[in-house]
Amino acid sequence: MDARTGKVLHSENADSRLHPASLTKMMTLYITFEAIRNGEITLDTPVTISRNAAAEPPSKLGLVAGQKIKLRYLIRAASVKSANDAATALGEALEGSEAKFARRMNRTAKALGMSRTTFKNAHGLTEEGHLSTARDMTVLGRHVLYDYPEYYNLFSRTQTDAGIKKVLNTNRRLLGAYKGADGIKTGYTRAAGFNLVASAERGNERIIATVFGGRSSASRNAKVAELLDMGFKRAPSGAPKPSLRAPVYADVETVAQADGKIRAAGKVIRLNTAVTRSLRPMARPGSTDAPTLIAMSDVIDTVVAEVTQKASLMPANVAMAQPAQAAPSAQAKENAVMQRAAAKVGTGAISPVARPVGLFARALTPKAEPEEPRVVTRVSTSGGRHWGVNIGRFKSHHAAERVLLQVALKETDALDGALRKVVRRPTGFDANFLGMERERADLACRRLQARNQTCFMIGPS
C-alpha cells in the first residue's frame, strides 16, 4: 500500500481471515495512544499488574502479580518486545478487564474500516474467533503511523528500557537490513505462522507491506522486502501528504438514568473516548461555609453546547424520540436544561430568588452576598511540560521531519515522551521537540550539542 494515499499497489488473498498473532498489539497500542491523548490515562500512571496479566505465556516482560509499573514501560514492552503480559496489563488498565477492552478494540476496528477483523484479547495469542486480514492490518498500521506520529519512533527502536530490564526489538533484523525501514510490528504463533506489518520511507515515498503465514522469520522478511521494493517502484513520487484523522465513534443505548452522559429523549450518546473523570478542583479546606460564585449563564451555555455537539454525532438513522411518546414540550426541555445546569453548579452554588424567564436568561439574584468570593479554575494537567528544544530550520517540511526522526532515534532516553513537531516559518520549517519539563529540555539540548547537533531551548511562551 502507498501509505500516503492508502492505494493498494499489490494484493494476494488480502481478505482471507487468519490469525493475526501479535499484530493484534498494534490495536492495543493504538487505543492506548488514543487514551493518553484524550486524558484517560498518562504515560506516568502507575499500573498494578493482575494475576491474569502476569500469567500470560511468552513472549513476556516478566511482570509479577501486584507489581506496579508506569504505563510508558508497558507501552515499550508491548511495542518493542511484543510482551503479552504488558499488552494484557494495558488493556486492563484502560477498561478494567480484558473482555471489556476487547469490545473497545472491536469498536475501534469498525470505526477504522477494518470490516473483517474480530478481536478477543489484547495480545493476539490464538483464540477462537480472533481473526483479521492482511488488508485490515495494513489499514491499522497506516493509522498507527499517521494518527499518532509522536509515538511511531517506538517501533524503530532496536532496543529500549522497559522499566525492569532492557528489551530487544523482535523486528530488528529487517530494520537493520532494509533501507528506510522504521517499523511496525511482528507476530508469531504456531497457528498463525510468521506475520509482519512493515513500513519503509525513501525520499517522499512511504510504503506499508503486510505478510500473513510466513514459514520462517527469514522467508517472511524476504517476502516483505520484495513487496516493499515493488511498492517503491509503483508508487508515484509526487503523491500528496495524507489527511488522516483518528476516528470519533459513538455507541447508542437506552437507559433510564445515565450519570455524566447527555440524554436525548431516552437515548444516550456515549463517546467511548471521552474523559470520565472531572477535572474540577476540590473545595478549599476550611472554607466550605462560603459559597462559590459561578456564572449560571456560562453553565447553561456549556450544557446547551454539549447537547448540540454530541447530538450531532448521532447517526442519521437513529430515532431521537422514543416510540409511543409525545415530543417533550419547550417548557420541559427548559426545565431539563436548568436541572442539568444546577447539577453542574453543585449544592454549594448560589440559588436564584426567582426563576429566570426563558432558557437563556442571565439575570440571577443570589440569596446572599458571599464575604470572600473564590475563583474556580480548571486544574492544569500539563505537569510543567511547557518546554521544548529546537534543532534547526530546514527548507522543507519533509527535511525537518526526517531530522527529527533521526535525532529521536539517537537520543531515545533524553527525548523520550517528547512530541516531534514541525512549525512553518516565513524562512523555513522549524524542527521542534515539545512537551518537556525545563530540566529535561536543558539535558536534551546539552546532549545534542555534545553530538554537534544545533539545539536551543524553547520556553513556555
Key attributes of the depicted protein:
four-stranded antiparallel sheet, 18% strand, 33% helix, 461 residues
Task: Report how far apart the termini are.
Answer: 41 Å
The main sheet comes to: 4 strands, antiparallel
* Amount of beta strand: 15-25%
Count of DSSP strands: 14
Helix content: 25-40%
Unreliable segments of 5+ consecutive residues: 250-284, 286-300, 310-328, 344-381
Rg over CA atoms: 26 Å
Report strand order across the widest sheet.
12-13-11-14
Order of helices and strands: HEHEHHHHEEHEEEHEEEHHEHEEHE
The assigned structural class equals alpha+beta
Shape: globular
What is the arithmetic mean of pLDDT? Answer: 78
Counted by DSSP, the helix tally is: 12
Description:
There is one protein chain. This protein is α+β, with helices and mostly antiparallel strands and 461 residues long. Helix content is 33%, strand content 18%. The chain has 12 helices and 14 strands. Strands 12-13-11-14 form a 4-stranded antiparallel β-sheet. A hairpin with a 2-residue loop joins strand 9 and strand 10. Helix 1 runs parallel beside helix 6 and helix 4 packs across helix 5. The longest helix has 18 residues. About 23% of the residues have low confidence.
